């Protein structure tokens, strides 16, 4: 059923050949090395009505992630934990191939992969988000808004989600529940996505590379070098050796990205 | 696995084929080695190693007689479902009537069943069929059932022996399409008996002594009919 | 993953709550050709999982705009029966099912000679009748059999298998309790002949050594499951009364 976005345009054979030819010479369509990601820029606090937000530019891909925090009731099986929920919207303004309407399978997969990284990586301390055990907890909504699609939404959205969470303030005073406080962030899980093109593996594929990739692998690692989430996609395959290589590259690239996310790129005007 | 005498060697997709020969149908070569692409049996013919699938959808071959259902009508042709991956167009030039442009629906309408012949198949699997030959026609009355196209040879039997026996015992007219569609016409009791027998053949197609068992079944059915 | 609890998942003898060793699979049973109408079908019992898979096609893809000019499209639909889990599941696909259907479709496509049937669809329906963790990998294993049974040309069978981590130990094939209270799960699909990896997901917390250990464990077990698949396929045609 994966035939809405990735196959909507027929890829010129010429482009495929060109990208392969470049790869055989060790380079890429935009001159990057195989393990080099595009320039990453993060502006925190972009959306002022949100409890936390981040505008991410990864090359020409642009994603805005907003965090809203509200009071609600906990799930019956986790009465002493706050709730995390992640949603993604591929807004039609971001690409000629995105269509209006309820989220399709691409948007759902995107939201779930980002959610898995944040959740399994324990980015936020859900146990600190209980107001009254079994009755009242804070619900953290992460909403991913894709604005400009030039490939690799997984990483741009993952970086945006983590950055928005580090930016977020729990609006306790609005609910007359005491003073506002910073959302408790425990860990910094960072996804890095790779595409397999021919027998080459490249980090952070752009749209051209994504459109001819046979397989895709996203690996989310935290600041301790642990792996928290993986997602393989597309109909090609990886060898075990390739998977090992990808995990290692993901840790290295992830460490650099983490510095950028935590860095002093705070765009808030106080 | 305890393979019986006379049972041909079964291979599964991706299984290495040890038989020597040139790669034929149903196999693929990777790094100089030959593998089966299907669940099927290995067959060596004229120096080629083939794997004949044991199951699956009907794959049309030129010259096959098939039974199809009209599912759409256009001014110059009909679209026929012949139980294959693709629908088959039937052009007005390929029917035994003179059809004026736009008058196709007068001759065959949606839901009609025809006996036709595969006149051409291209390498993409697209199919053309014709009704312009002795015996090909629209089928009316009677009943239609579907079986796996891979069981068709057992229903027909060696030299048509099985189908002949079914006709003799029941007095029914029967057409077996290579695509697994079977048309049966005759008395209601006869049709019921034929269907029961065909279902038996279907489920026991891979067993020994099938013809004898079918014959015994038909004798029994006839006995009951006469007894009533 | 990771509901915190005091439940011990591995005892002093190194055995798991169902008595298995760390690298031991649950009992698996497979049967091919279990449904009448489908072009191909298979049933699998894997631990407490009971899953049915059916294949329809190749047939002209509908609606027409989903057709691809040069290949068949593979549409797998993973679905859980409302009564397959303790708390009734609302019928229809939830977000998890949508995601699983997508990655399963992609994994299955990796073995199918899709270029043989342009403009068609091959529809694979995976129905979980009773769930006990590892449903996606058991479903893929059954779907592979159903595809072979439907006469779909493929370059290999495909085997689903998962590994994970419980009580700090890397183990094979998590059951429901281990999945609920364990620390990580790594569902995979493997091409047994070439050892390529067609599906790989992970959630939880693992070091590099633990993760690679889990992948190796699942890849090894895939060879065992592959033998069962071959036996199940051949059994359908060899058995003589």
Distance N to C terminus of chain A: 47 Å
Written as H for each helix and E for each strand, in order along the chain, the element string of chain B is EEEEEEEEEEEEEHHEEHH
Average pLDDT of chain A:
91
Rounded radius of gyration of chain B (Å): 21 Å
Task: Present the secondary structure layout.
The complex is a heterotrimer of chains A (270), B (228) and C (241).
Chain A: H1 13-24, E1 40-44, E2 52-58, E3 61-72, E4 83-90, H2 105-120, E5 130-132, E6 136-148, H3 153-167, E7 169-170, E8 181-182, E9 190-197, E10 200-203, H4 207-212, E11 215-221, E12 227-233, H5 240-262
Parallel strand pairs in A: 4-6
Antiparallel strand pairs in A: 1-2, 2-3, 3-6, 5-6, 7-8, 9-10, 9-11, 11-12
Helix pairs in contact in A: 2-3, 3-5
Chain B: E1 10-11, E2 22-23, E3 27-30, E4 33-36, E5 40-45, E6 48-53, E7 65-73, E8 77-81, E9 88-91, E10 113-121, E11 127-130, E12 137-139, E13 143-146, H1 152-156, H2 161-170, E14 173-176, E15 181-185, H3 188-203, H4 210-227
Parallel strand pairs in B: 2-6
Antiparallel strand pairs in B: 1-5, 3-4, 5-6, 7-8, 7-10, 8-9, 10-11, 10-12, 13-15, 14-15
Helix pairs in contact in B: 2-3, 2-4, 3-4
Chain C: E1 28-32, E2 40-46, E3 49-60, E4 73-80, H1 95-109, E5 120-130, H2 135-149, E6 159-166, E7 169-172, H3 176-181, E8 184-191, E9 196-206, H4 208-238
Helix pairs in contact in C: 2-4
Structural overview:
The complex is a heterotrimer of chains A (270), B (228) and C (241). With 270 residues, chain A is an alpha+beta fold. In chain A, 27% of the residues lie in helices and 29% in strands. Chain A has helices at 13-24, 105-120, 153-167, 207-212, 240-262; strands spanning 40-44, 52-58, 61-72, 83-90, 130-132, 136-148, 169-170, 181-182, 190-197, 200-203, 215-221, 227-233. In chain A, the strands form three sheets. In chain A, strands 1, 2, 3, 4, 5 and 6 form a six-stranded mixed sheet that branches. In chain A, α2 (105-120) crosses α3 and α3 runs parallel beside α5 (240-262). The longest helix of chain A is centred in the last third of the chain and has 23 residues, at 240-262. The model of chain A is unreliable at 1-8 and 265-270 (pLDDT under 50). By secondary structure, chain B is an alpha+beta fold. Chain B is 21% helix and 31% strand. In chain B, strands 7, 8, 9, 10, 11 and 12 form a six-stranded antiparallel sheet that branches. A four-stranded mixed sheet of chain B has the order 1-5-6-2, with no helix packed on it. In chain B, a hairpin with a 5-residue loop joins β10 and β11. The longest helix of chain B has 18 residues, at 210-227. Chain B is flat. Chain C has one domain: 2-Layer Sandwich (Ribosomal Protein S5, domain 2). Chain C contains four helices and nine strands, in the order ββββαβαββαββα. β12 (227-233) of chain A pairs antiparallel with β9 (196-206) of chain C.
């Amino acid at each position: 059923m994966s035939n809405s976005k990735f196959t909507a345009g027929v890829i010129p054979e010429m482009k495929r050949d060109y990208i392969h030819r470049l790869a055989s010479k060790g380079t890429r369509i935009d001159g990057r090395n195989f393990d080099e990601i595009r320039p990453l820029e993060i502006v925190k606090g972009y959306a002022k009505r949100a409890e936390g937000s981040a505008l991410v530019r990864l090359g020409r891909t642009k994603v805005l992630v907003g965090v809203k925090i509200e009071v609600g009731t906990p799930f019956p099986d986790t009465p002493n934990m706050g709730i995390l929920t992640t949603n993604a919207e591929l807004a039609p303004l971001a690409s000629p191939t995105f269509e209006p309407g309820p989220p399709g399978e691409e948007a759902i997969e995107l939201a779930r992969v980002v959610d898995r990284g944040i959740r399994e990586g324990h980015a936020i301390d859900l146990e600190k988000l209980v107001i009254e055990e079994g009755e009242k907890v804070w619900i953290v909504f992460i909403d991913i808004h894709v604005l400009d699609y030039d490939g690799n939404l997984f990483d741009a959205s993952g970086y945006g989600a983590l950055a928005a969470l580090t930016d977020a303030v729990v609006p306790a005073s609005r609910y007359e529940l005491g003073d506002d406080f910073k959302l408790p962030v425990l860990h910094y899980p960072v996804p890095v996505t790779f595409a397999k093109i021919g027998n080459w593996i490249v980090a952070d594929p752009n749209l051209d590379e994504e459109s001819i990739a046979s397989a895709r692998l996203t690996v989310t690692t935290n600041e301790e070098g642990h792996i928290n989430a993986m997602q393989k996609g597309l109909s090609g395959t990886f060898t075990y050796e390739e998977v090992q290589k990808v995990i290692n590259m993901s840790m290295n690239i992830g460490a650099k990205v983490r510095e950028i996310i935590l860095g002093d790129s705070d765009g808030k005007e106080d | 696995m305890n393979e019986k005498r006379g049972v041909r060697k079964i291979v599964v997709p991706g299984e290495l084929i040890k038989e020597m020969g040139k790669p034929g149908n149903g196999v693929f070569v990777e790094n100089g080695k030959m593998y089966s692409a299907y669940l099927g049996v290995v067959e060596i013919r004229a120096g080629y190693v083939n794997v004949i699938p044991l199951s699956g959808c009907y794959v049309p071959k030129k010259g096959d007689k098939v039974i199809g259902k009209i599912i759409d009508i256009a001014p110059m042709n009909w679209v026929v479902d012949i139980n294959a991956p693709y629908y088959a167009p039937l052009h007005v030039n390929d029917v035994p009537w003179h059809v004026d442009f736009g008058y196709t629906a007068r001759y065959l309408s949606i839901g009609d069943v025809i006996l036709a012949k595969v006149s051409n198949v291209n390498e993409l699997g697209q199919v053309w069929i014709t009704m312009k030959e002795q015996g090909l026609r629209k089928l009316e009355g009677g009943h239609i059932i579907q079986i796996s196209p891979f069981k068709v040879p057992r229903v027909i039997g060696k030299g048509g022996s099985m189908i002949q026996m079914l006709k003799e015992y029941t007095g029914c007219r029967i057409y077996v399409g290579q695509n697994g569609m079977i048309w049966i016409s005759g008395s209601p009791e006869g049709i019921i008996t034929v269907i029961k027998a065909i279902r038996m053949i279907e489920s026991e197609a891979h067993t020994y002594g099938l013809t004898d068992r079918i014959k015994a079944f038909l004798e029994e059915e006839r006995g009951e009919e006469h007894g009533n | 993953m990771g509901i915190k609890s005091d439940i011990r998942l591995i005892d002093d003898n190194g055995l798991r709550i169902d008595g298995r060793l760390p690298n031991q699979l649950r009992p698996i049973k497979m049967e091919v050709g279990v449904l009448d109408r489908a072009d191909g079908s298979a049933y699998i019992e894997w631990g407490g999982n009971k899953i049915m898979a059916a294949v329809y096609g190749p047939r002209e893809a509908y609606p027409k705009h989903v057709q691809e000019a040069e290949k068949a499209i593979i549409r797998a639909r993973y679905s859980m029966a409302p009564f397959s889990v303790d708390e009734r599941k609302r019928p229809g696909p939830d977000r998890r099912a949508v995601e699983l259907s997508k990655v399963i479709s992609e994994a299955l496509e990796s073995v199918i000679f899709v270029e043989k049937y342009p403009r068609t669809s091959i529809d694979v329906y995976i129905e979980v009748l009773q769930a006990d963790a590892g449903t996606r990998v058991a479903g893929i294993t059954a779907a592979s059999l159903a595809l072979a049974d439907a006469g779909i040309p493929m370059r290999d069978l495909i085997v689903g298998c998962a590994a994970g981590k419980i009580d700090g130990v890397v183990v094979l094939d998590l059951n429901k309790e281990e999945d609920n209270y364990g620390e990580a799960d790594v569902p995979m699909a493997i091409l047994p002949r070439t050892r390529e990896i067609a599906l790989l997901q992970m959630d939880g917390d693992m070091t590099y050594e633990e993760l690679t250990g889990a992948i190796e464990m699942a890849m090894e077990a895939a060879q065992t499951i592959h033998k069962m698949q071959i036996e199940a396929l051949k059994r359908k045609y060899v058995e003589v009364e």
